[in-house]
# Entry
Amino acid sequence: MMTRSTRTALRLATTATLAAAAASLLTGCATAVSLDPADAANDPDCAYVSVALPPTVADQPKRDTDAQGTGAWGSPASILLRCGVDVPEPTTLECTTVNGVDWIIDDSDAPNYRFTTYGRDPAIEVIVDSDVVHGSTALVDLEPAVSNVPTEPFTACVGAEDLEIPDTTD
# Structure
């Protein structure tokens, strides 16, 4: 037969266990960031990128997402990543190299900047809210994961200063 103090201790232990279980369930049910997967999100290189995504980017904590080949950081999400987007063709948009990764910069939706890898297949797109974080900081933090997609031979960022223009004054 249980004593009154044993029953009270058992009730307290059961209540504490139930409270801990409820808390873990509630945190596990936090809303995931809803993203559309890119067309080539199922490329094996995107899987390598996904498993290498860092827990923080530009001091923003990683969030769960609901699509393959994606990542998100910040609350609300201020950095979004999608692997497997269309490989960009040569463009007149600015292209920059950050830690050995070439990125095309699209600022047409500023303060949201779209960075797309250049010279990698599958391509990776990162959208950064520049009101919250600096794009170059996010790209530096993402470089180890993004580098899991190898570079294509003979592709790199170039600018007008890199082009040889033939002399047509003859």
User: Anything to note?
Assistant: Helices lie at 4-28, 44-51, 135-146. The first helix runs from residue 4 to 28. The mean pLDDT is 84.
